[in-house]
Amino acid sequence: MNTLDFSPLFRTAIGFDRLARQLESARSLGDAQGYPPYNIEKTGEDTYVLTMAVAGFGPGDIDVVARENVLTVAGRAPQPEEGRSFLHRGIAGRAFERRFVLADHIVVEGATLENGLLQLGLKRVVPEALKPRQIPVQAGKPPAQPRITTANEQEGQAQAA
Q1: Bias category Polar residues: which stretches (predicted)?
Q2: Which of 24, 75, 148, 156 is most exposed, with minimal Cβ within 10 Å?
Q3: What is the phi/psi pair of residue 61, to 5°?
Q4: Neighbour count for residue 60 (Cβ, 10 Å)
């Protein structure tokens, strides 16, 4: 029985804490949900790379869909070539579907498939409205506030004129 400690993932992967919890619970379900294997790597302050081992699949066999906060990677089993006879088949070629729950403001920047590894670039993009703003403090008088007049004051000003 393997015991895996995911606490380093909780500490280092900003935006993936929910994903780490789901990964930890999925591990307890067994190896059936472990295909295809994948890595999540933090490559910068707000950038990540999700790498999946998908040997035997071509770009036309894989669909990557990002909808709201869910990233879905699905692979259709490649059609076996006629005339091939395997004595041992250790490279899995079965269909798969993996779903990843992404934290808020995580966007998929692109996907590449090379040497049997599918790499998805992920980036945390916080909208300007949600970023903290530095408010400059100035010395001197406070800026003049516009005075709000009531309807009674407006009538009095109109009669005086």
Answers
A1: 147-161
A2: 148
A3: -90, -10
A4: 9
pTM over 0.85: no
Q: How far is CA 50 from CA 43, 57, 64, in A?
A: 10, 17, 12
What residues does each domain of the chain span?
7-79+90-128
State both tokens at 30: 């067994």
pLDDT tens-place values along the chain, 161 residues long: 566 665 555 554 556 666 666 666 555 554 446 889 999 999 999 999 999 999 989 999 999 999 988 999 999 987 777 888 888 888 877 899 999 999 888 999 999 999 999 999 999 988 888 778 888 888 887 777 777 777 777 776 767 66
CATH T-level fold of 7-79+90-128: Immunoglobulin-like (2.60.40)
